């Protein structure tokens, strides 16, 4: 993690997630005590979380205890994060999942971090967990965090951070993604296409 404090993104604290009608298409299995969502057939490439053209896997690092209280109070959220997902636990989980995937035949593993988890994913390659990483509407990521990362990186900021997806607010590819909104759905598809191409080109078969 960075030694300097990175300000939080206000939109992450004052915008409630959208309700989703998504019906799970995969199954949950456990790697140790970590619930992991599995979709698709085993293959030579794996990405956490799910992404097409790869072996999709998504671990429930919060172990069924997500943060759902709104409006968000930063001190309360940080207490929750420090209690449920301190770095030593996340580090162990990422290594366990990666080792499991490699044992199942994955020759390369990538990871996508959304918001806060971008900072966690950025530490993975330093610990030998990932071969390529990406982050969408990231928090806790800056030059100091990314410079030591020894693998390919893709960044997809929202309009709260940089003028890239300039019509999209924080969370447009995650909990605040309103796929009933035509513009959000279009930008999400564009972002997923970018990520799919990135991992296809940077993960070895």
CATH class: Alpha Beta
Mean pLDDT: 81
Terminal Cα span: 30 Å
Overall geometry comes to globular
Put simply, the count of helices is 6
Helix-strand topology string: HEEEEHHEHEHEH
- The number of strands is 7
The count of domains is 1
InterPro entries: AB_hydrolase_fold (IPR029058)
Protein name: Dienelactone hydrolase domain-containing protein
Give a description of the structure.
With 205 residues, the chain is of the alpha/beta class. It has one domain: Alpha/Beta hydrolase fold, catalytic domain (Rossmann fold), CATH 3.40.50.1820. It is built from 6 helices and 7 strands, in the order αββββααβαβαβα. The protein has a 7-stranded mixed sheet, with helices on both faces. The longest helix has 21 residues, at 182-202. This is Dienelactone hydrolase domain-containing protein.
